Model the fold of this input.
Amino acid sequence: MYHILVCDDEKDIVSALTIYLRAEGYQVFPAYTGQEALDIVECQDIHLVLMDIMMPGMDGITAMTRLREHHNLPVILLTAKSEDTDKVLGLNIGADDYVTKPFNPIELLARVKSQLRRYLQLGGGQLTPTTVTIGAIALDDEAKTVTVDGEAVSLTPLEYDILHLLMRNPGKVISPQEIYRRVWHEAPAADNPVAVHVRHIREKIEINPAEPRYLKVVWGKGYKMEDGTI
Done:
């Protein structure tokens, strides 16, 4: 299943695009700001981005420029007829295509399919396996399940998302603030609850939560996933 990120500050447009894309079998990840789009790309396996140009805060051009620093996935800009200059700029700095609002759903879907086909045929990307395994822990993002030594583990949605983020970045230390921003999709709260959720995750995936083999703390820095070897 292809994963498509839809970013537009107009929620009605995001909702409409989500309906069209899901009807074609795509999994959709909505975002409403450029920064939120970048956060999602870093913690999810995204295969194509639909990005509005005019958004408050970080606009689509800036977000796409930052995305291009680390990713080569297709980007289709969503533009207004009055944004010809930005449209040309976007294409010049890395956008793959554009769709003008108000868009024709049939045309938009055709452009999405074309870009995905070209991206994969040229070797630009491959569908990432939905299962991530670290040691005895297996996370299946398609089924939204986690097992330890083959035994199912029941996680809350937030616990699952935190574990998914850490397992997708093995060995990388991620701060509580960054975890909150990527999982909650908002600025970190003063009473950041990440530590509490991490403790609960440990209780479910570790043999001895007091001496964890997998979910480690790096004091003063954050958390990371290790392979469990001693």
